[in-house]
Amino acid sequence: MMLLERATTLPKFTVYKDALIMQEEAWNAYPRCKTVIKCPYFTKFQLTIETVHRADNGQSDNVHGLSKGQLATRDVEIVDIASSARDYWSYVVSSSNTDLSKFTSAKTGRGPLLEGWQDKSKPVMTAYKLVTIDAPYWGFGYRIENALLLGERALFLESHRNCFAWIDEWFGLTVEQIRELEQQSDSLKEELGRPTLVKSVEDFDQRLLPESEDIYSGQRAQLST
Question: Where is the secretion signal located (predicted)?
Fold first, then answer.
């Protein structure tokens, strides 16, 4: 089990190894995909990611068909795969070094992705992702939700950056070849995952919202020791 040291204003608590087990269910019916992640130990916890792919530059509105109440509480964020911004979570998901502003595909001639590429590139596609997190646990549920949102954002950014950066490796593949690659996804997830040690609530909070590249570099050095 793992013992987390909490702030003096909050009680200490113990997390057993079973609490680290996650169950993932996924449905892929392009152009729609859905992933649901649950934790058997925390039965009320659920992370849902719903994706709709559209051949546009991100101008479609309410592609998930949300109600007025859901739209009122929704936060919209544009994730640009050409962005060079990096933070702690980029390191956690294993950030690549490919500069898409200088990259050109040898097979397709697509790229580089310069400023305003969304309105200039043809063809172009947007992945509309709806992330819903429910962790109704007093004292730490809010921190879990924030951590997962930041982590998922970094994962979305990196996976879609790689999708474009590796275009010469997958462009022209047959359906059978793609299915074979999907079967290898479990080993790929293990390769990308990097466990980190959180010693206290203060340490956890500091890693959630790095304010600068200097903080990111310092955390990387700390983790490597």
Answer: none
What angle do helix axes 175-183 and 185-192 make, rounded to 10 degrees?
50
Angle made by CA atoms 50, 216, 7, in degrees to the nearest 5: 85
Domain residues for 169?
Answer: 2-224
Q: Is 65 left (phi over 0), alpha (psi -120 to 50) or beta?
A: left
> Whole-model pTM?
0.72
Give me the number of domains the chain comprises. Answer: 1
Which stretch of 92-96, 113-117, 139-143 has the lowest confidence by average pLDDT?
92-96
Q: Are strands 32-38 and 23-29 parallel, antiparallel or unpaired?
A: antiparallel
Q: How far apart are the first and last CA of the chain?
A: 22
Binned at pLDDT 50, 70 and 90, residue 222 comes out as: very low
> Does the structure show a pLDDT above 90 at 55?
yes
